[in-house]
Amino acid sequence: MRDELVLYTNPMSRGRIARWMLEEVGRPYRTEILDYGTTMKASAYLGVNPMGKVPTLRHGETVVTEVAAICTYLADAFPEAGLAPAVGSVLRGPFYRWMFFAAGPVEHAATNKALGFIVPDERRGIAGYGSFDDVVTVLDGLVLQHDYVLGATFSAVDVYLGSQIGWGMRFGTFPRLASFERYWERISTRPAAVRAREIDDALVAEREAAKG
Q1: Are strands 62-65 and 56-59 parallel, antiparallel or unpaired?
Q2: Residue 146: how many CA atoms within 13 Å on its side-chain side?
Q3: Phi and psi dihedrals of 102, rounded to 5?
Q4: Over the chain, what is the mean pLDDT?
Q5: What pTM, to 2 d.p., does this model score?
Q6: Cβ-based neighbour number of residue 53 at 10 Å
Q7: Burial of residue 122, with CB atoms counted within 10 A of its CB: 0-12 exposed, 13-18 middle, 19 or more buried
């Protein structure tokens, strides 16, 4: 189909964020489930995403990889969902700012934290995020200000950045600050978030059952 939406994913991956975004958009989409090390590295999929990782979104002939890009693309492709400020809006700058802060400093800081790597004080100028504590302080201040990243309105930034905070607390990457807990509770109980989580959790359960 010319405008078909296809999500290539694995239920134990960042593809869960892309699914949540698709549920927020509310358009029909098809899911292709891939496995690590096998179908994810097969030539057929490498022709779609040469990195051999998920998620990937296909919208007709358009292919988008990287979760921040997928969230931004979907918000712009389906403006009726109200998940991004209109071009020209005073909130468009903050939308880009925090989306790519999440894709850059937050992602890098969280990954290094999970790997046990601490940037030496004298080398902070080289690291784009400075230090892990710097990132946590910025995020704490951000979610304390308003209900959502852009103020009173939920957006694609909350899907992406919020998921990083939620996962970070679950897996011990981010501290369980009261501000983080309240923010995550606010966004993770949205109907689209619940639907997406139930779909992926069911897929995980099916795979576990199949293993015997």
Answers
A1: antiparallel
A2: 9
A3: -65, -40
A4: 95
A5: 0.95
A6: 19
A7: exposed
